[in-house]
Design goal:
Blueprint (H helix, E strand, L loop, with lengths): L3 E4 L4 H12 L6 E4 L15 E6 L2 E7 L4 H7 L5
Parallel strand pairs: 1-2
Antiparallel strand pairs: 2-4, 3-4
Helix pairs in contact: 1-2
InterPro entries: SAM-dependent_MTases_sf
Length: about 80
């Protein structure tokens, strides 16, 4: 399993949720979402992950599992 995942580009919320599901039971990981601070649509990530802002990036060290119905909704939203 990776210990660091950087998410950039389109579909960041869906990507973060899929990564959360892959890593949520593993210790010692970090997910970084670029350009987080100025994008209110990315706040959905905070429902499942504990976000720390570092500059314009979100840094997440822990998260819960995300239901597939939520992921499915975000897979068609390029946020």
């Amino acid at each position: 399993m990776p210990d660091l995942v950087l998410i950039d580009g389109r579909f960041r919320v869906a990507s973060a949720f899929k990564v959360f599901n892959m890593l949520c039971t593993q210790p010692g990981w970090t997910v970084v979402v670029d350009d987080y601070a100025d994008r209110p649509e990315y706040r959905a990530i905070e429902e499942y992950g504990e976000v720390e802002l570092v500059g314009r990036m979100a840094v997440i060290h822990s998260a819960g599992a995300v239901p597939s119905s939520v992921i499915n909704r975000w897979e068609t939203t390029p946020a």
